[in-house]
Amino acid sequence: MNIYDIHKANPDIFTQLTLKDQLFLYYKCPQTDKIIQLYSNHNQLAFTISGKRIIRHGDNKWITNRNQGILLKRCAFLQEIPADYSDWEVLVLYLKDDYLRNIFEEFRPYLNLSKLPKVGVKMIQEFEVNDQIRNCYESLLPYFSKPQVLPDSIFEAKFKELLFNILVHPANNQLLAHVNQLISEYVISIWEVMEVSYCYDLKISEFAAIATRSTATFRRDFEKYYRTTPGKWLTKRRLEKARLLLQTSEKRIGDITFECGFKNISHFSRIFKEKFNLSPNQYRMLNNQSKQYDRA
């Protein structure tokens, strides 16, 4: 599910304001499923007002809290309700590249862009929230409850102050490095998207959106880099991961199906058997028997 489209299409659930085509939201998360798969084709900043959620990407996990914001880059991810359930009240700011580029150029003379760290490979990144940053984002909250039209100039000034304070905070150099790369019109490579996203059940058009390409351009760039089609490559990588999990974990077949991006258990079992001539359960049993024999 494209979280941006979900947010934009449901203003009755996700209270929202727009600023020059930028979408800002303030809401209590309505999630009821224990875990959901989402993806976004826009960068977003998320600030936890209260409660928490668990965000997972690959083998990495983040637990939202008031003292750290989260930058969700263009990626697919899992959002999970924690065992100690609590509501999650959150402010979300979507950042589109063109608008962010204009603001960054305004900030550039005041930012320390020398000796920035290398941009991290993690697609979800925490950043520090101090009292000054918290005061800035909390000053935005009252405007979400006002029915009257808000002049862009007022809200934009507050948003710029918030973003500036985040970027100049010395502890947020990693985020500053990412934004600096974005505004330099960096073109994300195909492998940067696929190597961290293949295990999510996305359509080719959705992988293309994360990679900021049309579907046709994505297919062309993909085949140029990998020398095969996206469908064949995805099946191969997902089966490799599934086989490894069957060999090294006690996870249920349903959990492996979900974690490897297959649509359902029957689909996974069929594809797996076509490749290895064994069902996933048969493969696991044979592998376990082999281990017992080796130990004997």
What does this structure look like?
The protein has a 6-stranded antiparallel β-sheet, with helices on both faces. It has about 300 residues and is an alpha+beta fold. Helix 3 runs antiparallel to helix 4. The protein starts with a helix and ends with a helix. The mean pLDDT is about 90. It has 12 helices and 10 strands.
Summarize the structure.
By secondary structure, this protein is an alpha+beta fold.
Q: Per the principal axes of the C-alpha atoms, what is the gross shape?
A: globular
List the secondary-structure elements in sequence, H or E.
Answer: HEEEEEEEEEHEHHHHHHHHHH
Which CATH top level class of the largest domain fits?
Answer: Mainly Beta
Characterize the quaternary organization of these chains: single chain
Question: How many structural domains does the protein architecture include?
Answer: 2
Which structural class do you get from the secondary structure elements? alpha+beta
Number of helices: 12
Determine the N-to-C terminus distance. Answer: 49 Å
The percent of residues in helical segments reads 40-55%
Total beta strands: 10
Mean pLDDT: 90
SS strand fraction: 15-25%
What would CATH call the architecture of the largest domain? Sandwich
CATH topology of the largest domain: Jelly Rolls
Write the layout of secondary structure elements.
Layout: H1 3-9, E1 15-19, E2 22-28, E3 35-40, E4 43-50, E5 54-57, E6 60-63, E7 68-72, E8 75-80, E9 89-95, H2 97-107, E10 124-128, H3 131-138, H4 152-168, H5 173-183, H6 190-197, H7 204-210, H8 215-226, H9 230-248, H10 253-259, H11 265-276, H12 280-295
Antiparallel strand pairs: 1-2, 2-9, 3-8, 4-7, 4-9, 5-6, 5-8, 7-10
Helix pairs in contact: 2-5, 3-4, 7-8
